[in-house]
Amino acid sequence: MSDVTRRAAIAGLGATLGAAAFAKAMEPLAKFTADLTLDQFLQRHYRELSPEDLERVLRRVEEDTLREHGAHVSVADDKPIPGVQFGYALNLSVCNGCRKCAEACHEENNHDRASNQSYIRVFEMEQGSFDFEHANTTYDHAVPAPGKYYMPVQCQQCDDAPCVSVCPVEATWKEEDGIVVIDYDWCIGCRYCEAACPYHARRFNWSKPEIEASEINPDQGFLSNRVRPQGVVEKCHFCLHRTRRGKLPACAEACPTGARVFGNLLDPDSPIRWVLDNKRVFVLKEELGTRPRFFYFFD
Fold first, then answer.
1. pLDDT tens for residues 225-276?
2. What domains are defined for the chain?
3. What whole-number distance in Å separates Cα of residue 180 and Cα of residue 231?
4. Which of 6, 73, 95, 188 lies 20 to 30 Å (CA to CA) from residue 169?
5. pTM score of the predicted model
């Protein structure tokens, strides 16, 4: 890891942007850091934490959640499983647009209730077309509608992720199992990654998340579904606090039609490998060379 500090990154942003643009870009960060303790601001990057330091950080996050949100939670640090490379596939022939996946994501990942945030957007598309520009993500009629098909989009967990390469402080990276993660405590909120993502898969917390204590999912991961602070970017992480324990992502578990297929790409007997070996799959924006681990197919 290069020796990148928040102070150096912020100074670099100031040199790159004009004074007015820099001030505007840093407004969310200024609000965010006002709530930081000295220990949080001086905390080392996740990948530089010793086991002892990491344990203290996990306990600190639990205490912060109890103090700020009134909820008792358990925050773990699930590591990648050796010999596992995760992949996802989605059968567009059976997806009915019900958005149960987005609802499950919202609840599992402790999203802000006021904005009804989710890492998944479901596009209602015209049959026979592939026109995202005129697709509808805010439909409120009964589904599936005549002449329509539905295409959920979330983080594609790219092998060559542009969001990773543009981060000035290395707050986001690809783990050994293929999941692109974010160190929320290291993110400076510059939103370069959000701009670089060609799938519009990243979200920025403009305000402090609002969520009732009774609605907080207490089973949390440090790099996944813990309650994120204001002023940071977040994204889908394949529910690593579940999948690294042998469970399905919440969205796959909630899908009523079986459209979602998840598994280990290295396991020849896994459901995801069966799809890749037997179906004609495609990825979004293949021409960009991002090499997504999220595949789509029709029956």
1. 999 999 999 999 999 999 999 999 999 999 999 999 999 999 999 999 999 9
2. 1-299 (3.30.70.20)
3. 19
4. 73
5. 0.86
